[in-house]
Design brief:
The protein is mainly alpha-helical and 202 residues long. It has helices spanning 3-14, 18-27, 39-47, 53-66, 72-85, 90-105, 118-126, 133-142, 155-164, 173-180, 187-200.
Length: 202
């Protein structure tokens, strides 16, 4: 995704949705959040699970220093003591090692994802311990750069959509998918905007 593709997609959606148009006028356009596909992107998604954005950023920075480059081989070679010292929980060390082993063994072939439908990518990723639907959606959105991914399980997305549409509560997947159906084929770009709106709206 580029700034131009994001702007053009959001302008298209704003013409259909007055709430979105008003929100874009309020907080502006988001920046791209592209990631290189592969092990490092998936591991960084695991790092970000169930911790604040600031905590995740700090752990990622320490991990990048301790394991350079961040490859499956280097991660496994680092050992538990080093990985725990950068701030990874014991469970996330286990998840990271399992991910590294799956990629080295060929059980998980991320190089094939570019040619695979969304549902097949989700199935492949969620077959790995520590990677759920949220993780798969985030990977497809930022690493594979698919513009119509809807990360419905993300709490910030739920809260931003609640505010945008003046809902009584955060919507679960089935409800939110109905609300954002008119945003196809740019639901992923709309999600990128909702994170921006969540942080920037009054």
């Amino acid at each position: 995704m580029t700034p131009a593709t994001i702007r053009n997609a959001l302008d298209t959606l704003a013409a259909r949705d007055g709430d979105l148009a008003e929100a874009i006028a309020m907080v502006g356009y988001p920046e791209p959040r592209n990631r290189e596909p592969g092990f490092a992107a998936l591991l960084n998604i695991i790092v970000g699970q169930q911790v604040s954005a600031l905590a995740a950023a700090a752990i990622r920075a320490r991990l990048a220093e301790a394991v350079d480059p961040l490859t499956p081989e280097k991660f496994l070679a680092a050992g538990d003591e080093v990985l725990r010292a950068v701030g990874l929980s014991r469970r996330k060390v286990e998840y990271g090692c399992g991910l590294a082993e799956a990629m080295l063994s060929g059980m998980l072939e991320t190089d094939r994802f570019a040619e695979m439908p969304d549902d097949d990518v989700v199935q492949s990723l969620t077959g790995i311990r520590g990677l759920g639907r949220w993780s798969a959606d985030i990977y497809m959105l930022f690493a594979l750069r698919r513009t119509d991914i809807w990360p419905a399980e993300d709490l910030a997305i739920q809260e931003a959509l609640r505010r945008l549409k003046n809902l009584d509560e955060r919507p679960a997947r089935k409800i939110s998918e109905t609300i954002v159906e008119p945003w196809r084929p740019f639901r992923g770009i709309a999600a990128l905007f909702l994170w921006h709106y969540y942080k920037g709206a009054p």
